[in-house]
UniProtKB/TrEMBL annotation, chain A:
Family according to the record: Belongs to the binding-protein-dependent transport system permease family. LivHM subfamily.
Compartment(s) of residence: Cell membrane
Bilayer topology term: Multi-pass membrane protein
Protein's UniProt name: ABC transporter permease
InterPro entries hit by this protein: ABC_transp_permease, BCAA_transport_permease, LivM-like
Organism superkingdom: Bacteria
Swiss-Prot/TrEMBL keywords: Amino-acid transport, Cell membrane, Membrane, Transmembrane, Transmembrane helix, Transport
Keyword Acetylation: no
Lineage per the UniProt record: Bacteria, Pseudomonadati, Pseudomonadota, Alphaproteobacteria, Hyphomicrobiales
Annotated TM spans: 6-31, 43-60, 66-92, 104-123, 151-168, 189-212, 278-296, 327-346, 352-369, 404-423, 430-450, 475-502, 522-543, 563-586, 598-620
From TrEMBL, chain B:
Protein name as catalogued: ABC transporter substrate-binding protein
Originating organism: Ancylobacter moscoviensis
CDD domains: PBP1_As_SBP-like
Residues annotated as domain Leucine-binding protein: 34-371
Signal peptide extent: 1-30
């Protein structure tokens, strides 16, 4: 490994950094002003690339290759910016009064819909665009050939950075954006047309993402997996740089890209007699960087503490269910307990019910930190996975009996949650969210690569429970008992002094601490408890499926959990249960009915979000209230 | 509100939920069809599985028009497996319990295939794994109820070995996607090459995240190691990115490359005129196979869909043909009889006749090995040679040692 090759790889890294920066910059601008965690941002990037590879040859026929290429990029940027504006006006605007994170649910639905739309429009095969006319060759550097286009890309990042900086500091529009980033209500109070500002910002952010995607035309094919793969990296870059800081985003992009390039350049190395392939680290490099940065600097490299925004009313306190509600819950429990009997007539019902029970425990444990705790975790699947893998490892490799293996799994999850929670609960808001994501990704990558213990990407299988849990009914009833126990425990804690302390810490950290509540410790304990119960759900999952694979820890699984909680309603203890049930049923139904099931799932979620901006539980409560009001008339 | 009212509502809610949970199965018909429950990662891998589905549907249509199997028509019930084992197991349960599938088939991703195979063993259901490549499916974790159609990772690598050994290069570099398929392909390649050529040196190994290869740095790192030959396992978008960067940088000039799967139209066609000329690859050159079996398939496929087949089409078509042959031999869909019938079952497919080996339940269907070239601005495999799967598989005695779990 010569110095030359390291230097050269560092230059390579700059080109990749520009690509990363462009996606992240748009995300950062959007988040800064609107506080929307835009899950569809990767989709804008993907669309930019698809539109560019479609437009470039079309325009090229009439205008010549060069004009076609650059015209394609310009057209794609514009088209995606317009789409962004449309999304904001038609969809997101209706959700600004909903609790924060509901926009996340809506943009997640968009992600599903856009992906299927791209499949419909462009077909399943990857589309490789043309090379950049005039920039398709290479230049000599350090005795190696560097593609001209990489030089161009390495330069375009700083150009956009400077341009955005000028826009933000020298124009009225930029001043408004900065003002809104710091205090949205004040900007509105000063008579600025907030709606127009939000639309413009969303269009700007989407346009930059589309531009970033379109620029990749000369380097990579348009493919349907781009949206999610870009999204994770974009989040990392934004958070490492500090939310809302454009120059931070650029620095973070360079940092991430350089770390990756370095891992690739080092290749196979020997440390103390062990050979280690550094290129394995490229799988998690960005998340390792993020974890380190957030632990050392809780607001990222250039971030500042976010001004608190309290859109809409403060969250009403949780209330125990009334008599009617209790009767309904009892009926639901009886129905689920009778499932093995129902299974004699409808053999599939218990299979689906078992999935619902596990999902309910998973969602309820996430809700405990999200709702009463006020900490939205993006990495809750880590504890689900730790529980599942702990159980599976104990059952298959150690040969423990079913209850012992299950206990091992719960213990593994508890240990993981206690460890990671200790770091996470020190952080606030979106930084907390992202640190949980980073830890989940690190766990995922270890599981994914530790072939001997976790079975690597294939996972572990043959994890079937012993007697008396080996029959469908036996396992189901045991799972139901565990889940009900967990749910009862959570409910008890929420209404106990500990739960009140937790809620106090959420509503006002300062006041809670002033009244003697050790907020950090309360949060840490609640995080560990939620992780433990989530691990129980994971253990049940391993036994129910007979196998476990790294997907159980993936971002997708964490997002599923968030969707369940939000769909059901954050502000109610019944919310996560309703959400888990609805989501499981919905997914099972749409997956069976249509080729474009993801788009259908997205549409249904969108409709639900628009109809019930406080989740299903919130919607039901409103219906009940209206009914009562109507009866009183 | 009065309590009786409460109870009524609760019961109503319960009844509603029940009816949602349990939409009754299809009503029975006069000539009991053979129900094939098929599950696959249609959303996760559309490029391969769209043609696959067309292949299956063509075979079902042909068989049913010819009167079915022993007078019973085939009924194909396709499901998306969600691309992960958790959903796949639920879908498999659904196919078996609600749809009353006699046979399950399909899957693409290795971990999904392994999980469903384990499910098949547990529930004693016949499972024909169509696509997953992992060696474990038929060897380390093989079981009585699972058979596999496609040539495994080991077989695909072994097919390339004559070319790799033949060039007598000393310094090899390897680039592979960082998951079980890539890892095991790389391991197999190193083992086989070392056995044939003990003085070989592996100068670079790049394991890249699946679907997210940082192509520039990776191509450069390979070039910096100055290999005189490269073994590539990348496919899909990763392959396209890697090839383009390597071309621009001249990273592989004068280097001999062998590459897994790159000749499959699914992965070769998107490269268009940038297909890497001179690479020796495994794949499916539908345009230059002249056997009558394949001609008949090609004509029928193009007539039905107006586009040429991909490798996925072959796999889908042959899966259904295999099941039909198996059911005919077993005289019905009884699982145990079906398993026994599949052991040593002979099937005629578009690639000619092949067998499901009794020893490891692997089909001996082969693949084509050829050299990439450009024709009319499109990558093609020239001088393709069909390598029979049986010729690259270990003997029955060796396989027995590799299959500890199977009975």
């Amino acid at each position: 490994m010569s110095l030359d090759s390291l230097l050269f790889q560092a230059v390579n890294g700059l080109a990749s950094a520009s690509g990363l920066f462009l996606v992240a910059a748009g995300l950062s601008v959007i988040f800064g002003v609107t506080r929307i965690v835009n899950m569809a941002h990767g989709s804008f990037y993907m669309l930019g690339l698809y539109i560019a590879v479609t437009l470039a040859p079309l325009l090229g026929e009439h205008l010549g290759g060069a004009a076609g290429f650059w015209g394609g990029i310009a057209g794609a940027t514009l088209a995606v910016a317009l789409l962004g504006a449309a999304v904001e006006r038609v969809l997101l605007r209706r959700l600004y009064n909903a609790p924060e994170l509901y926009q996340l649910l809506a943009t997640f639905a968009l992600l599903l819909i856009i992906n299927d739309a791209a499949l419909f429009l462009w077909g399943p095969e990857d589309i490789l665009g043309p090379r950049a006319p005039g920039l398709s060759g290479s230049v000599e550097l350090l005795g190696r050939r560097l593609p001209q286009y990489d030089v161009f890309l390495a330069l375009i990042g700083p150009v956009v950075l400077v341009g955005l900086h000028l826009l933000l500091t020298r124009t009225r529009f930029g001043r408004l954006i900065r003002a809104a980033t710091q205090d949205r209500e004040m900007v509105a109070a000063l008579g600025i047309n907030e709606a127009l500002l939000f639309t413009a910002v969303f269009a700007l952010g989407a346009g930059i993402a589309g531009f970033g995607g379109a620029l990749q035309m000369a380097r990579e094919p348009a493919s349907l997996s781009l949206d999610l793969s870009v999204l994770g990296e974009a989040f990392v870059v934004v958070v490492v740089g500090g939310m809302g800081s454009i120059k931070g985003a650029y620095l973070a992009a360079v940092l991430v890209a350089e770390v990756k390039a370095l891992c690739t350049a080092l290749g196979v190395i020997e440390i103390a007699g062990y050979t280690f392939n550094m290129s394995w680290l490229t799988l998690v490099a960005e998340f390792l960087v993020m974890a380190v940065v957030l632990v050392l600097r809780p607001h990222g490299l250039f971030g500042r503490a976010l001004a608190a925004t309290k859109a809409g009313e403060a969250e009403p306190p949780l209330l125990p269910l009334d008599r009617r509600g209790r009767a309904l819950v009892l009926a639901a429990i009886l129905l689920f307990a009778a499932m093995p009997l129902i299974g004699m007539f409808f053999r599939y019902a218990p299979v689906l019910a078992l999935d619902m029970v596990i999902a309910a425990l998973f969602a309820a444990s996430l809700h405990f930190v999200m709702g009463p705790g006020g900490m939205a975790s993006f990495g809750h699947a880590a504890y689900f996975g730790l529980g599942a893998y702990g159980t599976a490892f104990a059952a298959t490799q150690l040969g423990l009996s079913t209850p012992l293996a299950f206990a091992t799994g719960i213990g593994t999850a508890a240990a993981g949650a206690a460890l990671f929670g200790w770091f996470c609960v020190r952080l606030e808001g979106v930084y907390f969210t992202m640190l949980t994501l980073a830890f989940a990704q690190i766990v995922w990558s270890i599981v994914y690569q530790w072939e001997d213990v976790t079975g690597g990407s294939n996972g572990l299988f043959g994890v079937w429970p012993d007697w008396p849990f080996d029959s469908r009914a036996g396992l189901y009833l045991a799972a139901l008992a565990v889940a009900l126990g967990g749910l009862a425990l959570l409910r008890r804690i929420v209404f106990a002094p500990f739960g009140l302390a937790l809620r106090a810490g959420r509503d006002s950290r300062l006041r809670a601490e002033a009244s003697g509540i050790p907020v950090a410790r309360v949060r840490w304990l609640s995080f560990a408890l939620a992780g433990t119960l989530c691990g129980a759900a994971g253990g049940l999952f391993a036994f129910a499926k007979g196998s476990i694979s790294p997907e159980a820890i993936s971002v997708g699984r964490s997002i599923d959990g968030l969707v369940m909680v939000l769909l059901g309603g954050v502000q109610s203890l019944m919310g996560p249960l309703l959400g888990a049930g609805a989501f499981t049923l919905l997914q099972d139904t749409v997956m069976r009915e249509t080729d474009y099931w993801r788009a259908l799932l997205g549409l249904v979620i969108l409709v639900l979000v628009l109809l019930f901006p406080f989740g299903i539980a919130g919607g039901l409560r409103r219906v009940a209230r209206l009914r009562r009001a109507g009866g009183a008339r | 509100m009065r309590p009786s009212n409460v109870l009524r509502r609760a019961l109503l809610g319960a009844a509603l939920t029940t009816s949602l949970l349990a939409i009754p199965a299809l009503p029975a018909r006069a000539a009991e069809p053979i129900r094939i429950g098929e599950l696959n990662s249609y959303k996760a891998q559309p490029a391969f599985l769209d043609p696959y589905r067309k292949g299956m549907q063509l075979a079902v249509k042909q068989i049913n028009e010819a009167g079915g199997v022993d007078g019973r028509p085939l009924e194909l019930i396709s499901r998306d497996d969600g691309g992960n084992p958790g959903d796949a197991i639920r879908v498999a349960e659904e196919l078996v319990t609600r749809e009353g599938a006699d046979i399950i088939a399909g899957t693409f991703l290795s971990h999904v295939g392994l999980a469903v195979a384990d499910f098949a063993k547990r529930r004693k259901v016949f499972f024909l794994a169509a696509e997953p490549l992992t060696d474990k499916l038929t060897w380390a974790d093989g079981n009585r109820y699972t058979f596999r159609l496609r040539p495994s990772t080991y077989m695909q690598v072994a097919m390339l070995m004559p070319a790799a050994i033949g060039v007598k290069r000393k310094r090899w570099a390897i680039v592979y996607p960082n998951y079980e398929y890539g890892q095991s392909a790389a391991e197999t390649f190193k083992t086989l090459l070392r056995a044939a050529q003990p003085d070989v040196e592996f100068v670079a190994e790049q394991a890249t995240p699946l679907g997210k290869v940082d192509a520039g740095p990776v191509a450069q790192a390979l070039a910096d190691a100055k290999p005189d030959a490269v073994f590539n396992v990348l496919f899909g978008p990763d392959l396209a990115k890697f090839v383009r960067e390597a071309n621009t940088r001249g990273a592989l000039e004068g280097t001999f490359v062998v590459s897994l799967l790159s000749g499959e139209p699914e992965y070769l066609d998107p490269l268009k005129d940038e297909a890497p000329v001179g690479w020796v690859v495994t794949g499916y050159p539908w345009y230059s196979i002249t056997t009558p079996e394949h001609q008949a398939f090609l004509t029928a496929y193009v007539d039905a869909y107006g586009e040429p087949p991909r490798l996925g089409s072959i796999v889908g078509y042959t899966t259904i043909r295999s099941i039909a042959a198996g059911v005919a031999k077993a005289g019905g869909t009884d699982t145990e009889k079906l398993v026994d019938a599949f052991a040593g079952l002979e099937v005629d497919g578009p690639f000619g006749p092949f067998t499901y080996r009794a020893s490891d339940h692997q089909a001996t269907i082969g693949a084509f090995v050829g050299t990439l070239a450009l024709r009319d601005g499109q990558g093609v495999m020239v001088a393709p040679v069909y390598v029979d799967g049986a010729s690259v598989l270990p003997s029955d005695a060796e396989v027995r040692k590799l299959r500890p779990a199977a009975d």
